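Much of the work behind modern protein science is quiet bookkeeping, done one molecule at a time. Below is the pair of lines this work produces for a single protein:

***
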Amino acid sequence: MNENYSTLAYLNNVYQSLKPAFSFKAKNKEGWKRWRGELKDKLFELLGDFPQSKPPLNVRLLEKEEKKDYFREKIVFESEPGVLVPTYILIPKKTKLPGQAVIALHGHIKGGKKSVAGIYEDEEEKEKTEEVNGDYGLQMVKKGYIVAAPDQRCFGEREELKAKEEGGNCFRSSMNALLLGKTMIGMRVWDAMRCIDYLQERKDVNKDKIGCLGLSGGGTTTLFASALDERIKVIIVSGYFCTFKASIFDLYHCSCNYIPRILKYAEMSDIAGLIAPRPLLVETGTKDPIFPTLSTQKAYKKLGGIYELLGEMDKLSIDIFEGEHKFSGNKSFDWFKKWL
């Protein structure tokens, strides 16, 4: 194709000319506070219309099972009227309560919350989860944490079967959301926030010690929810943190990854900078095909400038591991133990 005919080439030129309004340039803590407040307000706007109020959660307990090392509850709560969020709650047997809690968010994987909790319908599902080390919720409860593993919108029991047949599990919901001034990321972030509301109501949870982690699409929600909700005290983003340019912009991704106008205001390192000074661990595989590690390391260096300005570099870390698009866990459990 003649480059002069290419829309992608045109859009790349537009990107090259951008000067994001909230690219981090603060020189002191006062400048950081102003930047942080302005970008946070803009991010709420860009993610779409969040509900104006929080209705009752209307929690229902659907199942309770006893396992060797933990109890597993299945509950459902309403994140907004009529929007049901089925969730597994894993409660360790040997942990002193109230305990520390972790929201474990699945990525684009068939089993949704089941995979995170180590529940499989067949051997194929188990193999796919093991390929990416995706049962990190189960791993966390065995380390003594109370775990909440919700189905993210369009996955698990929230899968849109007809829409999936028409071109992708998330596609129609994501596109319809844009028509209504919403985004899929924003809706998933809202559900994560409401999951925190639920955990804080539980008597067995220390409401001041809640962390969040996720791989791929779970890392997406983890990053954006943590940027906006300071109740999340410790964060692990696996297989997502990168630059928008090298990942979402340059490579093919599911429609649920896109936020209108985001690049006019910030790169991903700026969004992650809203987490500072809370503890954040980034995981990146050296052979990750959709979030290239060199660009992840470039974004991490820029993010480090924010933590350095605040004198909090010990609260930022990266796990560069040999492997593809998966959850590493090499540093994760020590990270939660140290900070949560």
User: Anything to note?
Assistant: The beta strands are 60-66, 70-80, 83-92, 99-105, 146-150, 205-215, 232-238, 280-285, 316-321. The mean pLDDT is 95. The chain has 13 helices and nine strands. The CA atoms of residues 52 and 80 lie 10 Å apart.
